[in-house]
Amino acid sequence: MAAELPVLNVHTPLSSFAIVHSNEDTLEKLFDRLSNKTFSEFRAKRVKSGWVKYSWNGTIWNLDDDSDYTIFMWRQKSTTPGSTEWPVLYLRDPDEPLPNPPEYQNSSFFMFLPKSPSSSPRPKISGKAAAPVDSKSQKTAKRAKHTNDPPKYKQEFEKFHSENGVRTILGGIGPVRNVRMLLRSGYRNVYISRKFAIQHGFIPSDAAPGHYGYGGLVNIGKWPITVGRTKTTHTVFLSEESHFDVVLGRSFMEARQIKLDTVDPTDVLCMDTGEKIDCELVILKDGKGQIVTVT
Fold first, then answer.
1. Helix (H/G/I), strand (E/B), else coil: 252
2. Which of 27, 38, 121, 149 has the fewest CB atoms below 10 angstroms from its CB?
């Protein structure tokens, strides 16, 4: 009997399709194949890093570089094509806004999947002595207890806080696109790391100690920040932050009128335009696996 073709299902905000993907393919070949399939939808843009994610074990993962691709291929080989564990790809141009009703939304795209319903209130228990119950009643009670468990997104929210998770979004600063940015109201302004600033020419590559921020935060001018389809200009400061290339603080959040959901931490809305921003939760750990606190 011939082996099943390794078919990958792909969902975009507007459409769904399938492609054949073999173990011999590279990440660039996968991007090329996806680009050909979405030529019209993405107006001839080529699929690239920051566009592709996949589901595995109930979680959404990035597929940005060769390291991500190696892990993806290992996971793909460890399961059977067509099974419930088989990875599913999600494809989106992060520079384009998500469709909003009454526009069509592909219900299979991960950002449009329905959330778990909130748990119903527990019934009140009277002060009378409880009568003996049989095994059938105990099973019914166990099922009721399971029904009243907190919904999955609430459990993830509590885990997010207990493990010091942080919100990150994808955007651009100046001429640099597809930058993973920390969204944090605890910071006042917009900041970029020294390494990122030197790499992309925001400050000279020969910046010496005592200059460009070593003596404290230094204003390096106003730069455009692009998130979604909207560009706003902000004063940017150089910092010694080593975990994130760009930190978006209150000046950005107030300018874009960012609204955060108190229950679902991945629900980020820009009230100035009504755009829903693709947000990922990140938990930082050091080489020993210890959680790094982001203050």
1. helix
2. 121
Contacts of 257 (CB under 8 A, 6+ apart): 270, 271, 272
Structure tokens given for 90: 């999600």
> Above pLDDT 70, what percent of the chain?
73
Q: pLDDT tens digit string along 233-245?
A: 999 998 876 678 9
**DSSP secondary structure letter of residue 36:** H
Q: Among candidates 190, 205, 223, 170, which has minimal Cα distance to 50?
A: 170
Calculate the alpha carbon distances from 194 to 56, 215, 221, 243, 285 in Å: 35, 13, 15, 11, 21
Which two three-digit tokens encode residue 220? Answer: 């390096």
Do 222 and 235 touch, CB atoms closer than 8 A?
yes
How far is Cα 261 from Cα 227, in angstroms, rounded to an integer?
A: 18
Give residue 29's pLDDT band: very low, low, confident or very high (50, 70, 90): very high
Q: Could you report the per-residue pLDDT of 86-113, keeping only the tens digit for each?
A: 889 999 998 888 888 888 989 999 888 8
Task: Using alpha carbons, select from 180, 204, 181 the residue that is nearest to residue 194.
Answer: 204
Amino acid identity, position 272: D
Q: Cα–Cα distance between 157 and 49 in angstroms, integer?
A: 27
**What are the backbone dihedrals phi and psi of residue 4, each rounded to the nearest 5 degrees, phi first?**
-65, 140
User: Cα separation of 103 and 276, whole Å?
Assistant: 14
Rounded Cα–Cα distance for residues 53 and 60 (Å):
7
Q: Helix, strand or coil for residue 60?
A: strand
CB-CB contact of 99 with 13 (8 Å): yes
